[in-house]
Amino acid sequence: MRIDVADTPASESGAELVCIGLFEGDELAAPFADAAGAGDARPAFKRTALLRPGQPERVLVVGLGSRDEFDAERARVAAAVACRQAAGLEAQTIAWLLPDAGDAGAVAGALVEGMELASYRFDRFKGRRPDDEPRPSVESLTILTADPGAAESAPQALVAAEAANRARELQNLPANVVTPSYLAERAHEIAAAHERVSVDVLGRAEIEALGMGGLVAVARGSDEEPRLIVLRHEGPGETLGLVGKAVTFDSGGISIKPSSRMHEMKMDMSGGAAVIESVAAIAELELGVDVLAVVPSTENMPSGHALKPGDIVTQHNGKTVEIINTDAEGRLILADALSWTAEQGPGHIVDLATLTGAVLTALGSTYAGLISNDDAWAEQVRQAGEETGELAWRLPLHPEYKDLTRGSITDLVNASEKRKASTIYAASFLEEFVGEVPWAHLDIAGTAWDVGREYVGKGATGYGVRLLVALARDLASG
To answer: CA-CA distance, 140 to 182, in Å (whole number)?
Structure first.
């Protein structure tokens, strides 16, 4: 999608569809007030009405609700609603009259994000008849405003939203396509496209040589070769460490999952997808931040070689773990990646993982679970989520949760038989591997898939890409 920002009257935009917002207490301005269909316009949030004023030919009025409640998130939702209407009208060029409320730059960026995210479709495997017409899509969006902040924020928002859509594509693709090697190839593509990005991909032997016993053990059950993908974005200042779980298919291993909805476990690599594509966006935006991105990737499968309950593994930092449940594999591969990342001396670390089903029970699909060993860093991550609509709710750490992770014959166990506070338990386990580095963990099991929000709908959401880009931008700006 092409983005423009223009100080042009709506009647002169040349767009096939012009979108305008209507707040409670406001009335349509001329010439729209007298247009055919104007009587159907209502300010109720997400309510739409199609006007035909003649010039422009078609105007979509989108209800924005209360002006006091309007923010960037409401702008994203409104843009997504408009995108669906535009598809039905087969409009490929859209103009949005920037609503006169809130921060103009933030609202303009949110309109772009809402349109781009809502335009994503995963249909590459659907057959088409020879006489099928190509599905129309939005080719260009023009933000109508004189505000200079919009001219800066709108193109940046497009880059982040496009990266999120690429992550959604990785999430949606089946596990017989997206393997650890496939993710590694994508990382190589990013490095080849950007001078400031380099990549290292480690195979099974190299992973074993690093003492990453968790990743090696989980990978034993699969014929697919594991990969440790390391992307570096060169920039000034301290290093931001990003770690993303990428289990490209999670059967549960020997502790096999129920068959119901197991097909969705192709999305257990969502954290890794978000990290990989956020690096691509950071590089495209030329943000002045140093990034070390680490993605441990494998399948978790049952076989004669698979990890078994009762096995003991030694993680990268030397701590031993007794395996209670092979379906608690994500923390094993993350532990190795976090330990290695912490050794590289980053100033801060964020990890993203579809780690526990318990976070979905606790927070639904609205918030990711945020757990951190540092108050200031947790707040910075939370604010980046607030800015992008990729919300995170902080959960506590406490020594009593830590006690649940202690083993009787090993340093740690990978699952507690008491089944208490499972999301916090998993994060308490991970904390054992970050040392003193300020660290934040995002459990995205509830937000990565099937959220149903207007601009992402069902299926993959790409959660985390826009949050990480916003976080990197904040760090770059000091």
So the answer is: 31
